[in-house]
Amino acid sequence: MFRFSQSVPLFVIWLAVGICPTQAAETNVMCPVLQDQQATTDYAITYKGREVRFCCSECVMEFEKHPEIYENVLPQLQNLPLRLRVQQFMGTYGGLVIGGSLLMLLIGLRVYRWKRPAAKSTSVMQRRISPAIPLLLLSAYLGYEVYSLQDQLHQQQLEDEIHFATFYDFGYPPVPRRPDVKARLSGSYYRGNDERSPKLFNNGNYRTAKFDVSVCDADGQPVDAGDDVTDRALFLKFEIERPPFTPDFLYNPDMMGGMFLTAQCDRFLGRDEPVPDAVVLTETEPMQRWQALFPIRSAEQSCCGQSRGTVYVCEKYLYQPRVSFLPRRRGGSRFHYGISFDLEIEHGIVTAASDVYMGALYRTRKLPTWRVPMTQWFSHEPIPELPGPSTDDPDLLGITDHVARKGGKQPR
Questions:
Q1: Are 338 and 312 in contact (CB under 8 A)?
Q2: Minimal CA–CA distance to 243: which of 209, 217, 294?
Q3: Cα–Cα distances in Å, from 201 out to 46, 241, 369?
Q4: How far apart are CA 407 and CA 351, in angstroms?
Q5: Among 212, 231, 233, 397, which residue's CB has the most CB atoms within a 10 Å radius?
Q6: How far apart (Å, rounded) are the C-alpha atoms in residues 346 and 236?
Q7: What are phi and psi for residue 136, nearest 5 degrees?
Q8: What phi and psi, each to the nearest 5 degrees, are found at residue 102?
Q9: How many domains does the chain fold into?
Q10: Does 176 share its domain with 129?
Q11: Is residue 142 in some structural domain?
């Protein structure tokens, strides 16, 4: 028979190896948020050591806000081994628990005096000191942990505000999806409207911008397959054309002045230091056309070889700090679109395998993919234009919500 003192370590070992009841199921079949929708591996995350699948990125975002609400409908989270529960707890609060325990031990040792056999020892641990000192240390440590947690939550909230589903849908760094077209070095793309309402033309499915993307040289001359580019620097030429009858608000200097092109990717791009390769848009026709040239290959490289990468069309993102009286601050950059290029040059000649294409990297929460097809918001095929003046209702046009997010005043 084992004595109690011997059985305690055995019990601890039993917990450590996880000899616990029923193992959980592998994964869920239906989405935990929209429980009538089939879950897919395209939208899967790891939660409490288990894979959880969803039907769309919006459900991932919703789940991560309050995951405890959905735990009961996930079979893989039922009857988790105690070992995993302990590991999860220590993984989240391990630093707080260990630090707090050590400080509490310090309080006990110093306030009540740690006595040793040598009565005349002058060890620091034998001296009685005021309990205020370790309590202050404990308070300072707990305050630091709370501040760190708040800062982490603020960072996560800010990232969600800026990017929403960008990194869930397109990876990190984000890469746009290639349209179903043959390889080409120029093309036109169309952006649809964010708002949906029966009071709007075509229920709100109409064009709000046209984009032209191409490869050109330093003089703006287009480059195509078969062209000789020896000693010629190459650029991505990005142009925006405003469709008829779109509201001025979408194209005012404040909006367009915050747009730029970059090859950099960071979750808070431009927040802490300027974006080194940023190329801003130039207005080529007042309130109608804008253009930017982004360098992708130098003249010295243009003899032969391959160049590939992604250039992002970004918007500076400003947010209101938690202290209300402070001015708005730069929180980062929102990745609206990506332009991917793959240039193959042999003996100075651009080959037919070279390719350039554009895709959207961001959409608002109003346009979940299961409700509005992506092709109605961004497409390489034309989206219907407004046939005449649209409504001037700021709520129907989404101006009210946009101004509120920007922290500005409603335009008149």
A1: yes
A2: 209
A3: 42, 20, 21
A4: 49
A5: 397
A6: 19
A7: -65, -40
A8: -65, -40
A9: 3
A10: no
A11: yes
Task: Count other C-beta atoms under 10 Å from residue 336's C-beta.
Answer: 17
Amino acid identity at 270: G
- The answer as to whether 335 is a domain residue is yes
Look at residue 176 and tell me if it is in a domain.
Answer: yes
Read off the tokens for 278: 């940023």
Q: Is the peptide bond before 81 cis (omega within 30 degrees of 0)?
A: no
Is residue 232 domain-shared with residue 272, that is, in the same domain? yes
Tokens 């080959």 locate to 351
- Structural domain of residue 286, as residue ranges? 166-406
In angstroms, the Cα distances linking 289 to 2, 3, 59, 191, 251 are 85, 85, 37, 15, 10
pLDDT in tens, the chain (412 residues): 444 344 444 444 444 444 444 444 578 999 988 888 889 888 889 888 789 999 887 788 788 877 877 888 888 887 766 666 666 656 555 666 666 677 677 666 666 555 445 455 555 555 555 667 777 777 887 787 777 777 777 888 888 888 888 988 888 899 999 999 999 999 999 999 988 888 889 988 999 999 999 999 999 999 999 999 998 999 999 999 999 999 888 899 988 999 999 999 999 999 999 999 999 999 999 999 999 999 999 888 777 788 899 999 999 998 877 767 778 888 899 999 999 999 999 989 999 999 999 999 988 777 777 677 888 889 999 999 999 988 888 888 877 766 656 554 444 4
Residue with token string 């893989």 = 76
Global pTM value: 0.70
